[in-house]
Design goal:
450 residues; 12 helices; Rossmann fold; elongated; cell cycle; alpha/beta; 3 domains
């Protein structure tokens, strides 16, 4: 029967029952207590019946209402807000226990909330979930256990059965960077202000000189014409950033990108950074594209900046799956040479642990850098850095720190060797990847290299 499926016993009932059992045991030693214990037991049974009547007297409508509010999609690696709205339709003050059945991927068993609701009162319970994998997440029911003022029994209500939500790359981070870029506050997330070195060749307009303008851009002919008519007033040539430059994010999906950091893999960090960088490139009027690869070339989205292109990038990045095979840079080079004919900025997200690993791919990197502006982005081993910062207390730790220093030195050696061949590099911790990538893109753009 439905009434029994929704009936549960509260802790207060068990505690009271234990006390009564102890009193019955004591009554065998002191028979004078037996009549009093019997009266207490009868009263206890009556209170249970009264509590059940208070909770279940109206079966035609639900005496407690709940609704879960979840975004249409969750942002990978970010804290996503979840809200549960409660409404008490009982005629008395009710204590409720709320258990939200969140997706199993979170591996959490602590989503339990307690609240007291007055008659007709509405309340919102807010908490956050941080997914670390892309894909579909299934929410279960919102279980609400209502207790009357007696608190002996619970009545369970269930709402929001079976809701499926997709976890996309970090669009919340993308929106944050977009908002800060629009309000010129990117420095708040670690993006530096880049001073322009020289000028682009794309002329915009002739305008009056303002304090701080480069005197080398003074247009003396326009100044003389304006001075004749309106007195002395310097005029300068104003230039704008080069626009419509192709910017491609090349994302390595091989096994070197499966190392975890703070719950996310390096691949997910690269995907989140690619999403933000593509959006910034579109805001700068450049064209953004994506190319994924591992043992073979994956998906290619040609660089574009038409309406809806950002949504296509988001959908492509959402569908990327892990591959544990060795990365084939020869296939990458062949694909780039075939499909990317115009000189472009290539941001290659990969990882090299040793100099030998980089040397195996160096011929293909040099060929890519010959036709395009190549920026190789790889990762520091933050766990290794933590080991190196700790003092050594015994011989074993000295050996470990020596080996760690060797690996850390090889990372720096990779940067130096790539620089010898004119290849730009970023060696970054995973948590700083997005800010460092945007910084480098803006620096290259300010230097007129793209």
């Amino acid at each position: 029967m439905p009434i029994f499926r929704s009936l549960f016993v509260a802790m207060r009932l068990w505690f009271t029952l234990i006390v009564l059992v102890l009193l019955f045991i004591a009554a065998y030693a002191l028979p004078i207590l037996f009549p009093l214990v019997r009266v207490a037991f009868v009263a206890f049974v009556i209170l249970i019946g009264l509590d059940a009547w208070l909770l279940f007297r109206n079966q035609a409508r639900r005496a407690v209402f709940a609704r879960r509010e979840v975004p249409d999609r969750l942002s990978n690696g970010d804290e996503n807000p979840i809200t549960i709205y409660l409404e008490n339709q009982y005629a008395f003050r009710t204590r409720v226990e709320v258990i939200d059945e969140i997706p199993f991927q979170f591996q959490r068993r602590d989503v339990l909330f307690n609240a007291h609701l007055n008659p007709r009162e509405t309340r919102a319970i807010r908490y956050e979930l941080r997914p670390t994998r892309r894909g579909e997440y299934s929410f279960g029911a919102v279980n609400v256990f209502a207790l009357s003022p007696l608190g002996l029994l619970k009545r369970r209500f269930q709402f929001e059965q079976g809701k499926m939500v997709a976890v996309y790359p970090s669009y919340l981070q993308m929106r944050q960077y977009e908002l800060l870029a629009a309000t010129n506050r990117l420095n708040e997330v670690g993006v530096k202000r880049i001073r322009r070195l020289g000028h682009s060749m794309e002329f915009e307009q002739v305008r009056p000189y303002a304090t701080g303008d480069d005197v080398r851009t003074i247009n003396w002919k326009a100044t003389s014409r304006r001075s004749d008519a309106q007195g002395t007033s310097l005029m300068i040539n104003a230039y704008q950033d080069e626009r419509s430059q192709p910017v491609y994010c090349l994302i390595d999906k091989g096994r070197v990108m499966q190392s975890p950091f703070d719950g996310l893999t390096l691949l997910d960090y690269a995907i989140n950074a690619s999403l933000v960088l593509s959006n910034i490139a579109l805001l700068k009027q450049d064209r953004a594209g994506i190319l994924t690869f591992s043992s073979q070339v994956g998906q290619l989205l040609p660089a574009d900046r038409r309406t809806g292109h950002m949504l296509r990038i988001l959908e492509l990045l959402y569908r990327q799956k892990t591959q544990f095979l060795e990365t084939d840079f020869e296939s990458l080079y062949a694909s780039v040479r075939t499909h990317i004919r115009q000189r472009s900025l290539l941001l290659l997200f990969t990882n090299f642990e040793t100099v030998n690993a980089m040397h195996r791919q160096l011929p293909y990197l040099r060929r890519l850098a010959k036709d395009h502006l190549l920026l190789v982005i790889f990762f520091e081993n933050t766990e290794l850095r933590s080991l190196l910062d700790l003092p050594a207390s015994d011989t074993e730790q000295i050996y470990l720190k020596t080996i760690g220093e060797k690996f850390a030195f090889e990372k720096k050696q990779i940067v130096r060797e790539l620089a010898q061949y004119g290849i730009q590099t970023i060696l970054t911790a995973p948590q700083n990847l997005t800010a460092n990538t945007v910084n480098k893109y803006l620096e290259l753009k300010a230097r007129g290299m793209i």
